[in-house]
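Blackboard transcription, Thursday session:
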Amino acid sequence: MSGELTKAIADLEENEALRLIREKLDGGENPQSLLEESRKGMEIVGQRFSEGTYFLPELIFSAEILKEITEIVKPRLTQEVQAERLGKCVIGTVAGDIHDIGKDIVVFMLDVNGFEVHDLGVDVPPQKFVEKITETSAPIVGLSGFLTLAFDSMKETVDAIKAAGLRDKVKIMIGGGQIDEDIRKYAGADAFGQDAMAAVSLAKGWL
Amino acid sequence: MPGGCIGEEKDVTVVRDIHLNLDKRQILRREGIRQQSSVRPEIMALIDELLVNIDDEHLLEPAWAYEISPISRLDQDQLSLAEDVVLHGPVLTSALSDAEELAVVVGTIGPRLEKQVTDYLGGREPLRGLLLDGIGSAAVDSLAQEACKLIQDEASLRGYQASSPFGPGTTGFPITEQWQLFKLVPAAEIGVRLAASGLMVPRKSVSMVIGLGEQVTARERGEACARCNLSKTCLYRWEANNQHIQA
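(Written on the board underneath:)
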């Protein structure tokens, strides 16, 4: 039945989703279409998260299910499709801040949603962002920071990207505990996200 | 004394082997879940499994160090202690105007739990990493609560009341003041140091000051959260009357 895989993922029925994907692959269904159907399930999870029906653990749980599905489907895809990624992102926690869990979750969500993510870790100096953007030509940059002092580091990082002549080649998002529109303006970023799902939406919107 | 062993070192006290209360509701609050009934059984089962692992692997090593110092002077924007330590922060001078002494506490659950979180995240198990991180935060909350109880009990023996705790990095108390607190408390003895930014390492640590005096009053946690500038957006806030999660 069409949509049952989408529903199983949206309802976080892990075993059912994995059973369905194996059954459908064995039945000769197109693996890429099955991945699309799975991603629709993730979109519903994202909506439920935004509405407050699901919380962060459920969002991560659904992403883990999608990851398992991708690993099952991957060998059945052509090499071209296997290597296909939506786009590149460079992401890190800015200098002076060592919080990593929020950033790690954004990295995982972007990866599961098809992005090639270059994770620079925590306490990353502005120049490291510049070097990685230059090396990868990534058009999307994510700056994470939880502390108020991270706001200055975010601004310094954006300024360094500007000074390197890369500002018009990248879209920059910022995120972390207390980020809002005022901080976005102060840092000179293009957008801010309140959670991992927002980061994925922003990145997709910039493709 | 909350089940701990005390070692007097100079004029500060180090407490170890503290019993932490890992209440499920507090853990869910720290997971950002505000409605217990909606939590999926798989997630609750994983939290239970992680709690067993925490015991089996001895991931929690709670300890704290504290010192109580007389307040020598309270000006408009600074609070001076006897040891030539001066703390800045508008919240201190407004909330502790009746305090005669200041208890300074640094506590930690140690580095093992956050190392395991990092391993889970690096090993592509983010859900386990996220949930264990939340449990670690709940453990730090419990540690802070136990420390507050100890300070309060000790103060009441001398006829003093204890204020609410105030931590550097919260509204009205700059994180840069950590350096002053660490002059008073030998945090290295419990394995806590400061990064250049003033953040504590291990991250699952807590520092706070508590005012003591005959006329000092404490706020309910919900009230304290309501006064914070993150009160509308903070995932972990306590509501009024401490109702922070729906059953």
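Lecturer's comment: Chain A has two domains: 4-82, 85-205.
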